[in-house]
Amino acid sequence: MPAPGVVGQSLRWMLRGDSPLYIRPRAAPALAGWLWRFWRHCNARDYQAGVEAVAELSTGTMRLFNELAAELPFEMHEQGILYAFLSRRTLEHVRHGAGQALSAHEVREREPALGPDVVGGFLVAGERHVRPETLVAALAEHLARDPDVTFVRTRATGLIARGGRVVAARTAEGDVVGDAFLLAAGAWSGVLGGLPVQGGKGYSVTVEAPALRLRQPVYLDEARVACSPFDGALRLAGTMELSGLDAGPDPRRVAAMTRASERYMPGWRNGRRTTAWAGLRPVTPDGLPVIGRLPDYENAFVATGHAMLGVTLAPATAAAVAELMCGGDAQADLRPFDPARFH
Q1: Which residues fall within 8 angstroms of residue 208, CB to CB, at 6 or more apart?
Q2: Which residue blocks in 155-269 are alpha helix, DSSP H?
């Protein structure tokens, strides 16, 4: 997330309730320290180092998803991603080396759902998209059949440590004792693990049985909205709202996203039923995940802070954490993601 130019853009956007980035005024005082650290990382050096670290971690993503697909029934598509633009200036700025450039005619020929305001775009072939809830449901069902796995559905409130080891997780249902612990509580990991993780709220609108059928995923660049065609559904998702750990949706944000998307794809909202949703992405001030051993505790580990790349980086993160927790060293280079950088 931190990148050159983000500071100026975010300052113009952050107090507008209908902008792609919004900071809720009542949450701003509590976020001041985190925002200062975030803005300090909005430079070319840190951005390039972060891109390279994430790219290295995600090297095996496609292979790992192939392995998951061989065992689990979840929805995954391999159609590439089409980027669409309303501004030629923005298109020229973004597309350098990004993919196959397309003119206005070519981009509409490839995706007839795009309207006349779209001036061009580019295609990134070889990309995939997953319907996240089908992946999570398949994983849960798979684990539920394993006699060695027990699900405890409760609210965790903290970790109990003695002598440099975590001995239990404190929950609403009582203490859960264990030999090793993995903190993977998303945006709530900051509260439980003493890490600078904030909740970056994102929104989605899903249309069931949509009248408009996309041929491939489309990213609406200026609106910062991703459009994903699923089996029998179309989902638009985007925006970033910093408002603490409040996961409740703001109708204004949903309305702004739908209005902005109409300029690219007129009539996309037509369908049998439309459902709006909001959720919190775990975001760190340097934009990088937090993966590794928690400082001061030999048997406690953390995997969080993946922001908008949770599904993308989840298999690689899981593989690395499994190696760490089973007593070895991870094959992946986890140094850029070390929790100790915040300690």
Answers
A1: 232, 233, 271, 272, 273, 274, 275
A2: 189-193, 251-262
